[in-house]
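Before surveying the methods themselves, let us examine one representative protein, written as a sequence plus integers encoding its fold.
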Amino acid sequence: MWGGGWKRYFFPAFWLVYLGQAASGVGKHSNGAGAAIGYAIVIAFAALYLVALPMAWSGHVRSFWLLYCGAFVLTAAELFYAHADALVFCVYIAVLTVASRKSWALAMVVVLTVITALLPRLVKSWGGAIAWDAGLSVLLVSLAMFGFFKIIYSNVALTAARAEVARLAAENERSRIARDLHDLLGQSLTTITVKAGLARRLAERGETERAFNEISEVEQLSRRTLGDVRAAVSAHRDVTLAGELATAREVLRAAGIISELPGSVAETDPLLSDLFGWVVREGVTNAVRHSRAEHVRITLGRNFVEIFDDGRGGVPGAGNGISGLRERTEAAGGTLTVTGGLTGFRVRAEVLNPQPAPAVHDCAPGAAPQALRTT
């Protein structure tokens, strides 16, 4: 609570100065071997208190209560050597009681207060008067330490909460990077593979000029992908619906798939450009990579986007690609519908009440990114 190592004992040790009253009582009421035992008990009590107090909040419950009981035993033993001055131990026992945070702590503090005040009255040789000042000291110190410990425990809880927030923020950032890299590299690497294959076939047929153009586009795409990866890691990646539609047209052309794409994005809500761009990117990548489709149709509306291919279908929801899209869509207040069968595969995202995108990305699944579907 007050630091680690020796620092945890510094603050409690400072207040042990009041044990000097017990040591003074030993000097007044004992001598010889009795005095030596009395002083040894004072030292033992001080050591016990220093060890027990940090245990009250460190989780060593069994050890704490053993020492707590030991404090009563030492107090009772010291009464024979320091008489009423030994009751100063009750102040420290009261502090340990408050630190334990038990429901009966207040009752125990009252008992210690009463014992400290009335015991000198009951033992005639100790003066025969009620020690109001000593009893009041136990009560006031207990109340003061109650407030002090409340502040300390609140600070400990706040520190733990901040550490948990930091951990969750780091975990969310790792998940965001994993999801964005999956979404970015999935399409880009697929496009590079398709275009490189097309360039090889063109070169084999002797169409070197077209092959050269395709390879040049592969180079440009590789450079752009590298920039996208760097932007994704630094959270500055911007995906737009218009840009993804233009990329989709080129990818589908290179893959030899007939495309039916909207000519404009003007009808779509601008707040959904980012989300629908991701849906188009993932859906087209999926169609090129897995579907063996001959035709892909993308349909846009004010609040929805739909990608359909006439390929061999697949298992809807398999892989983390669909999980990432669903999380993005749900974060925007919408729904993602995925259907597949023997004659095609359909992905539809719909958001009825678009909201501005949050500044912080949501958490994606922690597993390694996979394809949108498996076949």
Observations:
- The chain has eleven helices and five strands.
